[in-house]
Amino acid sequence: MQAKDATPVRGLAVPWPVSLFASVMGLAGLSLAWRLAARSGAPEWIGGVLAVLAWVAFLIVLGVQIRRAWSDRAAWLAELRQPASAPFLGTFWISLLLLPMLLPVGLPARVMWLAGAAGMVVCAWRNFLQWTAGALEEGQVSAAWLIPVVGLLDIPLAFPMLGWPALRELMLFAVAAGFVLGTPVFALVFGRLVSRSPAAQPTLLILLAPFAVGFSAYVAMAGEVDAIARALFYLDLFLLAVLLPRVYAMLRGQPFRLNWWALGFPLSASAVAAQRYALAMPTMFSRAIALALLVLATGVIGMLAWRSLHGLARGEVMVPVAAR
């Protein structure tokens, strides 16, 4: 997401984009990563604190979006209808898929997950319907197009927790649709990345998510870390090594903007994948990678949280007015 213009935020005077649900995704993913790390001896309380923060962030962003919809419904709906910003609605549905994994198994968690799964399927269908209409310009293609794909792959993550064998077919559909539909979208986005040099776009790290989330989704369905799962994990590591230095170079020296939260979930999803891999394949290499990615994701999300709170307190946080 690239800001054409930006405006200082003082209180809630400037509308926050729907994409800020990415902060919820990042915190929820990091909580899951620390909970997995606790199986290897990490402190359990860290995952619990992050879970609380994820819920607080969700309630705050949800409240802001409800206020926006109430006070300026036309502008809010216009954001959701534009091809460039419409995929970011998926961040809300993904949040509903991740947050139940931070709750005890029960009716509230299952109802929230069902709402997230249904909404994500409809959201992905709507986005692909819009894209295949043939009325979009090349300049409207962005890494955000991968959000609906990632959302489909997020659906099976809670499958082991839910204990609903009858939902296995839905999970298989989500995995198949996410991988198959994600292939041409990834190629399209990557092709534009190669052919055009984008400006500072933290959303470039979304290119990691289909492989990091795909690894976890596949393991949730297969029940083991086999050769296919390992291949997805290694692809995630390779892309991380390629994209992270580039994104760092892009953002270095730039004023902080709330759209930097797009960095959070791809890194936390990679940390979750690394923890799962290390638990299944406990070697010195896997443990070192798991620790490194957990520290990286924690450090980046901690920085994002601090800069957001500090900027809001001083009225200096910059919010994108338009994205592409």
Runs in which pLDDT lies below 50 for 5 or more consecutive residues are 1-14, 318-324
Count of alpha/pi helices: 12
How many structural domains does the protein architecture include? 1
If you consult CATH, what is the topology? Glycosyltransferase
Count every beta strand, where a strand is a DSSP E run of 2 or more residues.
2
Tell me the CATH superfamily: Voltage-dependent anion channel
Would you tell me the overall average pLDDT?
84
Our estimate of the beta-strand percent is under 5%
Give the name of the CATH architecture.
Answer: Alpha/alpha barrel
From the alpha carbons, calculate the radius of gyration and give it in angstroms. Answer: 18 Å
Side by side, the strands of the main sheet go 1-2
Distance between the termini: 6 Å
Query: Which structural category fits the helices and strands?
Result: mainly alpha
The helix/strand order is EHHHHHHHHHHHHE
Portion of residues in helices? 55-70%
> Main beta sheet, described?
2 strands, antiparallel
User: CATH top level?
Assistant: Mainly Alpha
Shape: globular
Tell me about this structure:
Helices cover 67% and strands 2% of the residues. With 324 residues, it is mostly helical. A two-stranded antiparallel sheet has the order 1-2.
